[in-house]
Amino acid sequence: MNEPCLTSDKRYPGTMRVRRVTQAVSILLLVSMVTELTCVRFSPLRCQVFGLPFDLRLLAVLIPMLVMGIVLASFRYGRVFCSWWCPMHIFLEGIGWTGRQKQPGRGAVTWAGTVLLSALITLAVITCFVPWSMQLSAVREHGWSSTLLMVDTGLFLVFFILFGFVRQRFSLYACPYGLIMRLFKTDTTRVTFYDADAGRCIDCGACDRACPFELDVRQESTGDLCTNCGLCIKTCNGVLGPDKGVISMRQEAEGASASS
Ligand code: SF4
Ligand code: SF4
Prior knowledge:
By secondary structure, the chain is mainly alpha-helical. The chain has 13 helices and five strands. The protein is 64% helix and 8% strand.
């Protein structure tokens, strides 16, 4: 039997908590854009983030640093942006929770979430650059032929199709970040590792039902599609007992040597 990956298992609950906090910040950022607390205004030129004034020139430095930070973190930890920040992942986790538990009203909750998130992101994108007062006066002046309203409607439809119909297929096969990360994955990138040799799996299938991407966890978790969200680890520990689960996060080389 292989040695359990204790380091990863011990780190895992704290990692999950930090992941939840970053997901909350991601949604709060969208809400702050809708409420104009985070915005860019052009006349006069100014910017604020969560209500705090921000020098736009700093963005020229901060954005490349942020992108570089995400890429470097992804080399080490895998598709962390997907499972830590991306609204699509948050949405899929949400409907997975309601959907796969086969609760009554599952479809209604899923579609309500689709409409709400599509509207939230549409309004966040528009209101980040155009204040509500300007949007409302444009609608008052031009009615349904208002260009802004058409842009709003078009964006809403794009997000509605994305969240309502494309869903995990976008994250798996079309997301540019996901595609880039596939190219840069190395032997030391962290993966979610299923330890078949541990011999404790009872084939309950709970890990598959927990996966927001509907992966066959025991076959695909070490592949490029997994975002290391850790939900299958949590679920397996729930089935077999704390720290007795057979799924853990490991660096790929470590997982490969353990499985050989
Ligand atoms: S949740 Fe754990 S015990 Fe159940 S099928 Fe998945 S790996 Fe096996
Ligand atoms: S296989 Fe596990 S860690 Fe990977 S995306 Fe699915 S639930 Fe998350």
